[in-house]
């Protein structure tokens, strides 16, 4: 499917796409999608000035997200894998064409689709702000409203850093993000952005690519910092526990929509190669790559603040569908509950399905709960290398030993929790 993402001034008719998407504006033509309608103006009005290539990377990321929303998986031959021919308007198409191969590799890994990406010229770069603002923060931290990103922000402040918190807003998380940013470190500078992707027809729900926009927001912020303007490099912290980062399938059936690769080290590594090639001096770092969620809670450097805020964080994979409440039984909820158990911290979270030991399809017999129990039993029977080894590739991560070890500890945390509540 041919998708073209460009400004409203572009001649979409001449390009004849299957789906046209207005970039950084609202759709003014029937049948056209839109993305980032207010985003670029929000950055400009704030006085921030990201680098030109950071803005191009933002254009690419938004176009990817909009394509992910607008191209239905149900219409593909196998009901899942799509073929997306994406054309993106950027200021330096010649340079970005040199990165199309690695970008396509990253997108194929992230979404499991077949992508081809090419570029067209955008003659309208962002104008310089009337009053330039160069924040003095020394790094950027992605703040999702989740427990891991909260701990990451707390730890950075406790260790003397001054992070700029950057969030991708979604319904149910905006207020939580604002609360965390205001209460960590006596208040963090906070940038909240939303892609507002909207396409005609029924939008695709899987949305495996949405995380790339979050990375692009962080890169745009990092290149707006004073230290970046003076020639320094900036670290952008992407805080996620190592078990969920790798997200090995618990059973052979946990494939497709049940798996995510948002913070997988291979994906982050590919993005880093693109940034390095573009001369964008931003280093992507997950300081918890070899740490479980339970270990993150137990070792958080400000336990008092963590206890105060942890219950209001969001982990559930079905949060919106459950009326902005944690279900308590999806895999992210199970890992969350197991982490509180491991750290011996009180869990004040309300869970819709609290008593998982009940032997019915809503509790102990629910798919994710059964999958977790099967994974615990399988690892115990055959060992972690046999159980997880095929899902962690040396070609992607190099020495697999520390990755295998964090998976073992993550499954052990799950097993201890399930045993304690009477599921296994």
Write a compact overview of the structure shown.
Helix content is 42%, strand content 12%. The chain is an alpha/beta fold and 424 residues long.
Protein model, in words:
The chain folds into three domains: 2-121, no CATH class; 139-285, 3-Layer(aba) Sandwich (Rossmann fold); 315-420, no CATH class. It is of the alpha/beta class and 424 residues long. The termini are far apart. 42% of the residues lie in helices and 12% in strands. The strands form two sheets. A five-stranded parallel beta sheet has the order 3-2-1-4-5. Strands 8-7-6-9-10 form a five-stranded parallel beta sheet, with helices on both faces. The protein is built from 18 helices and ten strands.
Q: Percent helix among the residues?
A: 40-55%
CATH architecture of the largest domain: 3-Layer(aba) Sandwich
Largest sheet: 5 strands, parallel
In CATH, what is the class of the largest domain?
Alpha Beta
Provide the spatial order of strands within the biggest beta sheet: 3-2-1-4-5
Can you count the beta strands? Answer: 10
Unreliable stretches (pLDDT < 50, length at least 5) are none
Radius of gyration: 21 Å
Structural topology:
Layout: E1 2-6, H1 12-15, E2 19-23, E3 33-35, H2 39-45, H3 52-70, E4 83-90, H4 93-97, H5 100-111, E5 114-121, E6 139-142, H6 147-158, E7 163-168, H7 174-183, E8 190-193, H8 211-222, H9 226-229, E9 234-237, H10 242-246, H11 265-278, E10 282-285, H12 293-299, H13 303-309, H14 331-343, H15 367-382, H16 384-388, H17 394-397, H18 401-420
Helix pairs in contact: 3-8, 5-11, 12-14, 14-18, 15-18
